[in-house]
Design goal:
The chain is an alpha/beta fold and 348 residues long. The protein contains ten helices and 19 strands. The chain is 31% helix and 25% strand. The radius of gyration is 21 Å and the shape is globular.
């Protein structure tokens, strides 16, 4: 069954967003030699999105929807991974998972990568916002929330009709509704991502028009992987310009929102901490340290565009040749780093 055939097995319940073209400006410190990094992201078609009813489907606690034994693409975009998991997870669910009995009508919005901070914030929560505005009183079904930031943000929506699925369980209601993805991977629907940021700031009592002067560097020194090996040298330069060195693990979600809403500049290595740029005042500055051979992970460049931030970047050499972007460490060229910091200072 193809993706198109799966899509044909659904009925639209509510249109959420019309299609449009998202046009992005080049990074503020763009160099022609790096054109390949950004060329595919300067203009992107953002599709329509809707709440749909899926026929003959079930939802498993891993965050996957199956339609006639096939994983629905909205819950796992990457076909090679779908092909790898499809039959094994479906068979495991049917043979050893416990079916949870519930009302005839339920709605789901998760995907396979729902448990990561970036995916939770930019893919799951915009869908929660859409469900919050759904007039129909339908039971929202979610996998059990593991992280404190998930529980904190979910509670902010004040849902009353919901249930959590424990591991090794599934539901197969008579009517299963699903919220379609708002944008291709690494992209965002501007209306929903901006409304989400405002919604969370209002829930955590952060003024929407707040203008502050903090400059922050988000360190990954407490992370298990993907670190800046010469970070001590960078910190010296940053502190000299008034930057605060922060590890986001040290703060609650509410505290992170407060910090970022007060910040006019955010500097960080590619990673989930950059997601919090969505709480900075619009037209702030984001400076991302990136892996030099990574031409695909532009999610923070595109997220920066949605909030009209001035985006700066630096391509950094990997610790080891051929290492994976999501696991390896980097070494930052200090001369280039100083140059970019000076450009930012002059722009403020």
């Amino acid at each position: 069954m193809s993706e198109g055939e799966i899509g044909n097995m659904s009925n639209e319940v509510k249109l959420l967003a019309e299609p449009y073209t998202s046009n992005r400006k080049l990074p503020s410190n763009f160099q022609k030699k790096d054109e390949r990094v950004f060329e595919n992201e300067l203009s992107k078609e953002i599709p329509r999105a809707a709440i749909v009813e899926l026929k003959d489907s079930l939802f498993v606690a891993e965050g996957l929807v199956f339609v006639k034994r096939k994983i629905h693409p909205d819950t796992l975009r990457y076909k090679p991974v779908r092909d790898q998991l499809e039959f094994r997870v479906w068979l495991k669910a049917k043979l050893s998972y416990k079916k949870v009995e519930m009302a005839d009508k339920a709605i789901v919005l998760h995907n396979y990568y729902w448990n990561g901070y970036f995916h939770w914030m930019t893919e799951v929560l915009p869908k929660l916002l859409a469900v919050k505005e759904l007039e129909d009183d339908v039971c929202l079904v979610l996998p059990e929330l593991r992280a404190a930031y998930q529980r904190t943000t979910f509670e902010a929506f004040e849902f009353e009709n919901f249930t959590f699925l424990k591991e090794r369980t599934y539901i197969k209601p008579k009517n299963l509704l699903s919220v379609e993805n708002f944008a291709p991977a690494g992209n965002f629907n501007n209306e929903y991502i901006c409304r989400l940021a405002d919604f969370l700031k209002s829930r955590f009592a952060i003024p929407l028009d707040r203008k502050e002067e903090r400059k922050i560097y988000i360190s990954r020194k407490k992370a298990l992987k993907r670190k800046v090996l010469n970070e001590a040298e960078l910190e010296t330069a940053l502190k000299g310009l008034g930057y605060e060195i922060l590890c986001m693990e040290d703060y609650t979600f509410a505290e992170q929102i407060a910090i970022c809403s007060q910040s006019k500049v955010m500097v960080a290595l590619h990673g989930a901490g950059l997601t919090n740029m969505m709480f900075m005042p619009k037209s702030s500055v984001v400076y991302e340290l990136r892996f030099e051979h990574d031409f695909h992970n532009n999610c923070y460049f595109t997220l920066s565009s949605e909030f009209n931030h001035d985006y700066y970047y630096q391509l950094c050499s990997a610790e080891q040749e051929g290492q994976e972007t999501h696991a390896g460490n980097v070494i930052v060229n200090q001369a280039e780093f100083h140059q970019n910091l000076q450009m930012i200072e002059q722009s403020l």
